[in-house]
């Protein structure tokens, strides 16, 4: 945390996140209250098959009570390399294993309230296998063409922010596809 934080009080210590009340010193010297959430970070994986199709998932998200179209993703374990997390989550959620994993970049998910970084990766040279879902996960795999995925973003069927960012980074890295 920066030197502008005057006080920091842990108010929530969850399984994944920690929540704090903080006092933020402003340039005029006033200290204002802010909420701050700490997350360990996460990796998101864009799996692309040899023919260019994209491996998507539908994932039930309780916080919004929806089955969302997403790319596979997962939270970093303590000290875990983001690329290792990406490889692990790809296999767990889709059954695919990647021969190549290439970083596409990273971003803050919501820098007004959290320090969470999301690391994005392109997974290629894929081999199919079996999913290894956690008992609570409700994930199905869907293979889509690039055109289908672009259409799903454009018409709002894909409205998961991390997925849209990862796709954008990929398309930009490939000349805007």
How does this structure look, described?
With 177 residues, the chain is an alpha+beta fold. It is built from 3 helices and 10 strands, in the order E-E-E-E-E-E-E-H-E-E-E-H-H. Strands 7-4-9-8 form a 4-stranded mixed β-sheet, with helices on both faces. A 3-stranded antiparallel β-sheet has the order 1-2-3, with no helix packed on it. It has a 3-stranded antiparallel β-sheet with strand order 6-5-10.
Write the layout of secondary structure elements.
Elements (H helix, E strand, L loop, with lengths): L4 E9 L4 E8 L5 E8 L3 E6 L6 E8 L4 E5 L2 E3 L6 H13 L2 E12 L8 E11 L11 E6 L1 H9 L6 H13 L4
Parallel strand pairs: 4-9
Antiparallel strand pairs: 1-2, 2-3, 4-7, 5-6, 5-10, 8-9
Based on CA atoms alone, the radius of gyration comes out at 18 Å
Shape category: elongated
Tally of individual helices: 3
Unreliable segments (pLDDT under 50, ≥5 consecutive)? none
Give, in order, the helices and strands: EEEEEEEHEEEHH
Largest sheet: 4 strands, mixed
Strand content: 35-45%
Question: Span from first to last CA?
Answer: 38 Å
* Helix fraction bin: 10-25%
DSSP E strands, number? 10
Mean pLDDT: 94
Largest sheet strand order: 7-4-9-8
Structural class given helices, strands, pairing? alpha+beta
């Amino acid at each position: 945390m920066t030197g502008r934080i005057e006080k920091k009080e842990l108010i929530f210590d969850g399984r994944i996140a920690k929540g704090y009340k903080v006092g933020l010193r402003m340039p005029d010297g006033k200290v204002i209250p802010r909420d701050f959430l700490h997350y360990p970070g996460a990796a998101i994986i864009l799996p692309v098959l040899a023919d260019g199709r994209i491996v998507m998932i539908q994932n039930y998200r309780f916080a919004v009570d929806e089955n969302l179209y997403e790319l596979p993703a997962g939270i970093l374990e303590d000290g875990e390399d983001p690329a290792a997390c990406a490889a692990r989550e790809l296999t767990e959620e889709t059954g695919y294993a990647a021969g190549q994993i290439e970083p596409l970049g990273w971003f803050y998910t919501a820098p007004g309230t959290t320090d969470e970084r999301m690391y994005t990766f392109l997974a290629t040279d894929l081999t199919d296998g079996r999913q290894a879902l956690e008992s609570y996960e409700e994930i199905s795999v869907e293979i889509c063409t690039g055109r289908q995925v672009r259409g799903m973003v454009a018409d709002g069927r894909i409205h998961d922010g991390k997925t849209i960012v990862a796709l954008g980074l990929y398309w930009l890295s490939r000349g805007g596809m």
